[in-house]
Amino acid sequence: MIHIRRDVCGYCGACVSVCPRGALELIDAYLTVDETLCKDKCKICQMVCPLGAIVWEEK
Amino acid sequence: MKEAYDCLVIGGGPGGALAAKTAAEKGLSVLLIEKRPAIGAPVRCAEGIGKEALAEFIEPDPKWVAADLDKAILIGPDGTKFTIGGDHAGGKVGYVLDRKVFDRELVWQAAEAGAEVQVHARASAPIMIDGKVSGAIIHQHGQTYEVRAKVVIAADGVESKFAKWAGINTTVPLAELETCAQYILNDIDIDERANLFYFSFDAAPWGYIWVFPKGHRCANVGIGIAGTKSGDGHRAKDYLDRFIAREFPNGKITELIVGGVSACKPLESTVADNLIVVGDAARLSDPITGGGIYNAMYTGRLAGEVAADAIKNGDTSRKALMIYDKTWREGSLGHALARNYAVKEAFIKMDDNKLNSIIHSMSDLSLDDISVKALVKEIFKANPWLALELPRLLRAL
């Protein structure tokens, strides 16, 4: 599952724009992930982040 | 906040501001919501805009013009430079804005025109009736509101969700999302009248590095790279830190800005029943420069006009709003976007040897016209071999 490193995230929304499932949303300065929508393990958001704030953790 | 408006505008950037201002001037009741607590902040922008483009909308004001430019300098992988503009361009090149002040000014103009503005107010879902957008669920200060609108204008930027919720596919392909990092760098030696663009596959894969002056010894120094080129140890910020260590080791960082810029084709349709999508949300940022301020203001204003006409005629169906899509797509904006997309596709993947060879071929030339079209024409003239490699692009110019 996606883990968002809050101390690294710059809340820019780059990941939101590329998520094919629409699982990510930027609520003001708080990035959220809807785990019921995120299920392809595509990890696109992890790649695109300019800061490295998104990490994938096997559950 | 009322229960119903003629027009609901989602997002308080330049696109939303122009949409709200125009719709209010046309006599509509308008609500503009911005999810952040402040208009204009945090900035997600390198802040450059052409002078002539800006003049279509607003008189320049020293309050929000950070730098007045007379040239752009393109720099190849080996450091060879090619200057556009300079003395010949008559000071027409462009400005670097202070978006925090600029955006506030635009939203203030919308409010002055009669639009209601609510900040820290977020749309969490569209209200759908018979499959048609009919308003939005809005959260503000712990309260939830159901707000009806005859037309919703989605101006919610690169992280746009509203159009997606309403059924439009807005996903940007990973390779066509430029992932960006930028510092405001102080105490650096720069030409305060020149925008610099560094092109190098190795230093900025499928993107570029920019230095946009913001006044005395200060500049936006940033980078965009393709999403597919980004990963651990080679993210936008990693590349930028390497560039700054080399070029401005003594610069003082006073701000870090990150963001995404789409370099894809525009949405296949920028309208739906009772819905218009504008600016970055419609994927209308320029695929070559990444610039999106003008495109957002232009489509925002157009959306306001079309919404007003449609409401007056009592028909806000997709068919009735289609004139918005057709007008920008078949006009100069749509043509420029299509051409610049083709230019991007042709040049973005070139290796540093080819990029060096192109910049070398141009370095003795001077070019007054700062448009992408003029630049690419000159590149073709100076590099006849390109016509063989990119015949379709040459024909498209």
The greatest interface between two protein chains, and residues involved on each side, is: A-B, 24 and 37 residues
CATH fold-level assignment of chain A: Alpha-Beta Plaits
Characterize the largest beta sheet of chain A: strand count, sense, and whether it forms a barrel: 2 strands, antiparallel
**Average pLDDT reading of chain A:** 94
Query: Rg of chain A, please?
Result: 10 Å
Structural class of chain B: alpha/beta
Instruction: Sum up the overall morphology of chain A in one term.
Output: globular
Number of helices of chain B: 12
Principal-axis shape of chain B? globular
* Beta fraction of chain A: 15-25%
Question: How many discrete structural domains of chain B?
Answer: 2
DSSP summary: helix tally of chain A: 2
| Amino- and carboxy-terminal Cα gap of chain B | 49 Å
Low-confidence stretches of chain B: none
Order of helices and strands of chain B: EHEEHEEEEHEEEEHEEEEHEEEHHHHHHH
Write the layout of secondary structure elements.
The complex is a heterodimer of chains A (59) and B (397).
Chain A: E1 2-4, H1 14-18, E2 24-27, E3 30-33, H2 44-48, E4 54-56
Antiparallel strand pairs in A: 1-4, 2-3
Chain B: E1 4-10, H1 14-25, E2 30-34, E3 48-50, H2 51-55, E4 65-69, E5 71-75, E6 81-85, E7 94-97, H3 99-112, E8 116-119, E9 121-129, E10 132-140, E11 143-154, H4 162-165, E12 177-186, E13 194-198, E14 208-213, E15 218-226, H5 236-247, E16 252-262, E17 271-272, E18 275-277, H6 293-313, H7 318-330, H8 332-347, H9 352-362, H10 372-382, H11 385-389, H12 391-396
Parallel strand pairs in B: 1-2, 1-11, 2-8, 5-13, 11-18
Antiparallel strand pairs in B: 3-7, 4-7, 5-6, 9-10, 10-11, 12-15, 12-16, 13-14, 14-15, 17-18
Helix pairs in contact in B: 1-3, 1-6, 6-7
